[in-house]
């Protein structure tokens, strides 16, 4: 690993600690030691259907979409942007092939946290246990927020909520993926965007 990569990995370990759990100097070093930097170019697959998800991923910078196929159509389940976590949670915990796929839709730098290593070090480091729990809590909350969004809110309210929750996704993701994520057609999304701008 290059010197630049080492210092960047250290910075990411600190970011994760700030966001999820306070840590001692030794715990930070342990966390840093298990982080795996990965670069993906635009359009490159991070995880393919049929693979087993073995990592939790932290996006240092970039944009990803998590999607699956239904009746031949791609359905976007998640859009992740800088400083956020993603994973295929069912595949991760059941250790079974995933039906989801993850694609980088911008040049993207992620830090992969191997689940097996994370669990091993969490046994001996209480603050890493807390970080692990809080990452899982955040992932479940994000899934619940999205489920409630598409179940209970109007198209316009869905779009406004996404603008509030993830403004960078609105600015950077292609409209077709935003529409799919919000479970509306691109035409409906265009109308909603236009009416929102007029308000």
From TrEMBL:
Write down a Pfam family by its short name.
Answer: cNMP_binding
Under InterPro entries, the record lists: cNMP-bd_dom (IPR000595), cNMP-bd_dom_sf (IPR018490), RmlC-like_jellyroll (IPR014710)
Specify the superkingdom: Bacteria
- Domain Cyclic nucleotide-binding: residue ranges: 19-121
Q: What is this protein called?
A: Cyclic nucleotide-binding protein
